[in-house]
Every structure is written in C-alpha cells, then in structure tokens.
Design a protein that fits this description.
Layout: H1 16-35, H2 44-51, H3 59-72, H4 76-83, H5 85-105, H6 109-137, H7 143-171, H8 176-179, H9 181-195, H10 209-229, H11 236-259, H12 273-303, H13 308-326, H14 329-336, H15 338-355, H16 365-390, H17 399-431, H18 441-460, H19 471-474
Helix pairs in contact: 1-6, 1-7, 1-9, 3-6, 3-10, 3-17, 4-5, 4-6, 4-17, 5-6, 5-9, 6-17, 7-13, 7-16, 10-11, 10-17, 12-13, 12-15, 12-16, 12-17, 12-18, 13-16, 15-16, 15-18, 17-18
GO cellular component, one term: plasma membrane
GO molecular function: transmembrane transporter activity
Main location: membrane
Length: about 475
C-alpha cells in the first residue's frame, strides 16, 4: 500500500517524503502526550520527597493533566478552523514543550500543578489537530495505514510509561522525565513548520463559550467524581454532589450543542452509523482496556510482591503483542472486513481480560507472558479497527468536528477506565468483606472479571453494523 498523500508542495504536486514525515510527526506527538499521562506514576515517591509531601498528594499532578486534556480538547476543532492547522499544531507543540521544562524546574506542588495544566492545554491541541491534519489529506484507501501508525501511541504509552518512568527515576532524577521532551519538542516544531500546510475551514466560525463551559464542567466533575469513588477514603457527599453537577452540566451541554448553529462539539457525525458505533460500543471497549495498565502493575507489585522493575518487564509483554499485531492488521482487515473482525476480536479481547483473573503468584512466568501477549494482540487490532472505522464514512467537511468529538470521548474513556479499575478493586474488597486498606490477589481476580464484562458489553453495539461497513477503507469486498 502506498503512503498516503498528507501534504502538497506549493505547486500542488504530491510530496511523498513529506507525507511520511507528517504521519511520523503526528504519531510522535501523540506518544509524547499519552506518555506524560502515565510516566510519572512510578516517580511519585521521589517527587514527593523533592516537594516534602506524601506520595498520595502528588496524584494531583496526574489528575490535573488528564482533566485539562478533557476540558480543552473540544475547542481544538474551532482553533484549527480559525487559526489554521499548522499554526495550532506547531503552537501546541511549543506550549507542551515549554510546559514540560517548567514541570522539571518546579519545587512545589502548586507550581508543578500549574505547569501540568499548561502542559495539558498543549496536549489537548496536539492530539485532535494532528489527527485532523492526517484525516483531511488522506484518501480513503490510505486511511487504514495512516490510522494504524498514529494509533499505536495510545496503546504503547500507557504500557511502557510506568517502567520507563521507574528506570529514569532509579538511575537519574524524576526531572529528566520532563526534560527529555525538550529535544523531541524542538524537532517536532521544526518539522511541523516545514511540512504542514496552514489549511483552514470555516475560519469565521464563532467561539461557543457557553458550550465550552458546560462541556468542560461536565467532563471535569464526572471524571473527578469517579476518581474519588475509587479512593479508600471517599468523601461520598462531595462525590455525589460532583456527579449531580456533572450530569446537569452534561444535559445542558447536550441540549445546547444540539440547538447551536456553531457548537463547540459538532454532534452531526453521530448520524453516520459507523462513527456512532465506534463512539458507542467502542467507548466501552476503550474503558475496559484502559483499566488493564492500571490494574496489572498493582497486581504484580501489591498482590504478588514483585518489584517495579520485574512488574515493568511483565507488562512489556502487552507492548510486544501490540507491535506484533501491527504487522498483520491491514491484511486481516482486508480479508475479513470491519464487522466480523470487530465482533470476534472484541470477544477475544474481553476473554483475554477475564483470563487475567486466573493469574496467581504461583502461575509460571511463561504463562503470564503468553496471556499478556495475547491480550496485546487483540487490544491492538480492536483499537486500530475502531479508530479507522470512526472516520471511514465521515465527509471531509465534517472531519474537524468528528475529530474533536472522537478525541474528547477518547480522553474521557481513558480516564474512566483508570477509575473503573480502582472502583472494581473497591467492589472486590467489599465482596470479600474486608476493609479497604489491604489488597490481596483475589481482589484483582474479581476486578478483571468486572473490567472484562464492560468490554463484552461494548461488542453488542457492533452487531448493528452493515456487513460491508467501511469496505472502501478496509478494501474488503464480499464474494457473491
């Protein structure tokens, strides 16, 4: 398959080398954004000592970043339409890079949190705008390959983030976790300015301030409430109030967006069946697989007594499965098509999560590695297929709104997935009649079954797809 035409020279001729550079650049920035959401997890104890705080207090550094992403992603489509793809994408890389350096220079929790918020704003613009640059310029027949390349960061970063952060923290300083973004950011900025066109669509579109506030309030309160529910010392009254506020804000945002002529998040793409299914059942799948990178390190370290390095080596088996599947994703999709692959592989992905509930401290290492590798295979195929199907039938004119909506839901499902893992552990502890201060291997068995059930629910929506859904993108044609 030929590389997609993602950029053009001033004369209008295709620039294949520029096309490859853009796809690689967007994938790299996605990796930076996703990695920074998880890499500091294993560095929290050292960071806490630097700030003279308890490690639990540093969770604010993770939460503030994820919440900022959820709040600002919805306006990325408007920003790209108003100021141009190159301007916004390059500006986002610059903001993200500068904020990363500031994170490494901070010495107090308030300044670190402020720097993480600034970093989140940059990341919120990088993800959907970078993908939009690919989607607008990629022909349908090249969409599978392009999406496959830019999808892997979302799969890989949560898996290698914790062990990489632990390695850097152990052999250097936690500050280098953020300083390493400086050379990557500078290179990305130069390439973005060199190869991206500053295309605009609907430049006169007004900013939907009310929609932005309502969507941001709904995302923030609901995500934060779920995080509180997953804690041992849940303030139930406060969490309940946040949920109520989030639901009210969400209902208000839904009504406003549907009535507004220029909404902050365009919902019209949901009228397209393939996009709607990818956002519906696909979101349940993303929630379930997002819980695994949270539960696995805890199970290996807290439940089985392994150290951080040993735990990281085991979780890299998932990463190996992710990469291995990339070699055969396109042939599989061309041979069988979206609907059969998503249904069968979705069931296999849920089963692989359920099988993790059978792992115990006495399970041979090779079996653990095989289970995680198989999970990585199904996880990667489902992830890529859903992301590609999302935009298979979306017209170019609706790509901006569809990309912003998809990125918003993606970020929400990643956050909800982590919260689901924590809540599932709490439910397991309650079912076993113990207090919430200790966790045993049996708790993880129940938690993985709960997470697998959520993933299985997501498969039900896939049956509504037409048998030839997305055939133009996958290249699959039924015989007869």
């Amino acid at each position: 398959m030929q590389a997609p035409d993602l950029t053009r020279t001033t004369s209008g001729a295709a620039n294949p080398r520029g096309s490859s550079v853009i796809v690689t650049l967007v994938a790299a920035t996605f990796f930076m954004e996703n990695l920074d959401g998880t890499i500091i997890a294993t560095a929290l104890p050292q960071m806490a000592r630097s700030f003279s705080l308890h490690p639990v207090d540093l969770s604010l550094g993770i939460t503030s970043y994820l919440l900022t992403l959820a709040v600002f992603i919805p306006i990325s489509g408007w920003a790209a339409d108003r100021f141009g793809l190159r301007t916004v994408f390059a500006g986002a890389i610059a903001v993200f890079t500068i904020a990363s350096v500031l994170c490494g220079m901070t010495s107090t929790l308030p300044t670190f949190t402020a720097a993480r918020v600034l970093q989140g704003i940059g990341g919120a613009m990088m993800v959907p705008v970078g993908r939009l640059a690919v989607l607008r310029a990629t022909p349908k027949e090249g969409l599978m390959r392009a999406i496959s390349i830019i999808t892997w960061p979302g799969l890989v970063a949560p898996v290698i983030g914790p062990p990489l952060g632990g390695f850097i923290t152990t052999y250097s300083s936690w500050r280098w976790i953020f300083y390493l973004n400086l050379p990557l950011g500078v290179i990305g900025l130069v390439l973005a300015l060199r190869y991206l066109d500053n295309t605009r669509e609907h430049a006169g579109r007004r900013f939907d301030f009310l929609g932005f506030v309502l969507c941001g309030l709904a995302c923030t309160t609901l995500l934060y409430a779920m995080e509180l529910i997953g804690r041992n010392d849940t303030p139930w009254v406060f969490a309940s109030g946040l949920i109520a506020m989030g639901l009210i804000a969400g209902a208000g945002a839904w009504l406003h967006v549907r009535r507004s002529t220029e909404p902050v998040v365009d919902l019209t793409a949901l009228r397209i069946r393939t996009f709607a299914v990818a956002m519906g059942g696909g979101s349940l799948f993303r929630i379930s697989i997002s819980a695994a990178p949270f539960l696995l390190p805890l199970m290996f370290q807290v439940g089985f007594g392994l150290n951080a390095f040993e735990s990281g080596l085991l979780t890299l088996s998932v990463f190996a499965g992710n990469l291995s599947m990339k070699l055969v994703t396109t042939p599989v999709m061309r041979r069988f098509g979206f609907r059969p692959v998503l249904i069968v592989n979705g069931i296999l992905a849920a089963v692989s999560l359920a099988v993790m509930s059978l792992i115990s401290p006495t399970t041979p290492t090779w079996i653990v590695v095989a289970v995680l590798f198989a999970s990585g295979l199904s996880r990667s195929l489902q992830f890529t297929a859903l992301n590609t199907l999302s935009f298979a039938d979306v017209p170019k004119a609706q790509m901006s709104g569809a990309s912003a909506l998809s990125s918003t839901l993606f970020q929400l499902t990643m956050g909800v997935g982590v919260a689901l893992g924590a809540i599932a552990l709490r439910l397991a502890e309650w079912m076993h009649g113990r207090d919430t201060q200790t966790v045993v291997p049996a708790d993880f068995s129940v938690a993985f079954l709960i997470v697998a059930a959520v993933g299985l629910l997501g498969v039900a929506d896939l049956f509504s797809l037409h048998r030839d859904a997305g055939a133009e993108v996958s290249g699959h044609r039924r015989k007869g």
